[in-house]
Amino acid sequence: MQISLQPLLRLPRCVKRRVLVAVDALIVMASVHLAAALHLESLAAFLDLQLGSTSLIVALISLVLFLWLGLYRVVIRYMNHTTVLRAALAVMASAGVLLLVTKFKSPPLVMPIIITYALLVLLGIGGVRFLLRELYLQHQRRKCRPVIIYGAGAAGCELAVALRHGIEFEPVAFVDDWRGLDGALVEGLRVYQPVALAALIAEHKAAMVLLAVPSAPRCRRREILQRLSALSVPVKTIPGSADVIAGRASLSEVRDVALEDLLGREPVPPFRELLDAEVRGKTVMVTGAGGSIGSELCRQILEQQPARLLLLDKCEFALYAIEQELLRHPAMRAGVELKPLLASVQHREALATIFATFEVDTVYHAAAYKHVPLVEHNLVEGLRNNVFGTLELAQAAMKGGVATFVMISTDKAVRPTNVMGASKRLAELICQAFARAGSQTRFCMVRFGNVLGSSGSVVPRFRQQIEQGGPVEVTHPDITRYFMTIPEAAQLVIQAGAMGSGGEVFVLDMGEPVRIRDLALNMIRLSGFSVRDASNPAGDIEIVYTGLRPGEKLYEELLIGGTATRTCHDRILTSSERYWEWPMLDAFLRRLETALANTDHTLVRQLLQAAPLDYRPTEELADLIWQARQARVATPAVRHVQAGLASGVTLAAMLGPVAKGG
């Protein structure tokens, strides 16, 4: 039979305090009598009226001292070693009171009785508080879900303490790789080796495993996560040491597994001189400032303390969101001017005004349409924004005296099979042509693959599909992609922008490509679900293959020529690639602009294939307007009308019989 603590827990705090005061008074009085009885080895001390008056006086004075020392301000459920020290100090004061009071009594109590009294009081008031704390925690544990903590170090201990004070999880065991801890007790919990993890989960019916190794290198965390993914138990982590040290998080926070841990990619410390070179004390502009890469560039740039940071974006909400975030950034205390500018990179007059007004030193051009299927469906607008937006921005930058122009490119620009990749390769050609033409502005391009968590990334989509119970949609079982975290990509872009003399294509070392199917499998299993397939028809979540989307490749590349040159940074390579001189490129762009103005999709594709882009589309045009036009042409009624118009028959004449019949 379990006793409910709810009535006691619901009492007001002032009532609980009064109850504790009464209990402490009884403990003090009883301790005086018990100490004397133990010393005299006689129960007669309990009936001694003179000793009773002494105990009452000591109790009253002791309670005043306890109150003054703050013993009743301590919240019992959060007791720790400082509470024990405070209680010991209070007991010493109470023993001193007893010693002083008995000086005026006859006969006075001897010192052994005083010492015994102090020990009894400490045991009594401490024991009552720890008993109440344990009863409270036991009551809470009945509502908590059992969890296993992987990592019995300082972070794991802190996490266990924090969880016990919460109402959601109850740690039941530690798991740690170090054999020296096997079988040891840490925070009252036994430490096991990883081989026992599956049995522990089954024994305790653990709701999840919490990974508490924030200081471990990512390659080590990846090994642990791969081991845990085979158990199909939910896995969460605590923040990394860098976030904790920077004050962005605390060790007690529990988070979803970071996908960068699955990649096992170790970040490389940045070169401070490269980060500062084109930013510190200068006027810097970021286009597409509200996007995934653009917003992270703004955060990184702000930390290098530019004189002025211009945020350029044509999306009002995205611009407002990044401005509000940056205004709260600690780096703003250094007096950086923040200017949110609502404009499109295609608007020549707006760009000219901005460059003339703010005297920009460095431009990071991240504004682009980058969603492959959407650009395939909207070919004309995608090329206008990505190609001619870059052209307008580059020309305005040169006229405005910009010193450095850094264009953010993509691995999809290498031998593109889609319009988005072709448009980014064309944008690279524009920057290369201006650089080779002897422009005073130093142009360079930085090319990299997918970034984790960006808008349109598979990671958020997979998470959403898993939360909804599946299925998880993968385009092809063999499709692979390069991945990098957004902060690392932005940091490397800034450093690459400070290298070279102009015209270089910098390629970020993305590590090994990741198979998207494996990424989906790990995300499903680490969320605590099993994969439903032919070998496991009773699984939780199925992976379905939807087929490659328009313009999508099975794998991406970073180099056109296949060779790259090392730079002073381990993660940044440079590649010299073929280009067109500006006169030839200018003539081509004029023809392309005319084709876009006429919405001539067929000619646009022919021009893209004729340019030095290695553009090799694998399907027919996917543009929605082109497809709608083709459908109209294919409709028999439309063909009949067109034939009638061509032969001189009026539309009214053709529709007349139909109207009469109606």
TrEMBL record:
Record-linked InterPro entries: NAD(P)-bd_dom_sf (IPR036291), Polysac_CapD-like (IPR003869), Polysaccharide_Synthase-Rel (IPR051203)
Gene3D superfamilies: NAD(P)-binding Rossmann-like Domain
Domain Polysaccharide biosynthesis protein CapD-like: 284-574
Transmembrane segments: 20-40, 52-72, 84-104, 110-132
Keyword annotations from UniProtKB, A to Z: Membrane, Transmembrane, Transmembrane helix
Keyword Transmembrane helix listed: yes
The organism's place on the tree of life at top rank: Bacteria
One Pfam family linked to the record: Polysacc_synt_2
Signal peptide: none
SUPFAM superfamilies linked to this entry: NAD(P)-binding Rossmann-fold domains (SSF51735)
This protein's record includes keyword NAD: no
Similarity comment: Belongs to the polysaccharide synthase family.
PANTHER family recorded: POLYSACCHARIDE BIOSYNTHESIS PROTEIN EPSC-RELATED, UDP-N-ACETYLGLUCOSAMINE 4,6-DEHYDRATASE
Protein name: Polysaccharide biosynthesis protein
Organism the protein comes from: Billgrantia ethanolica
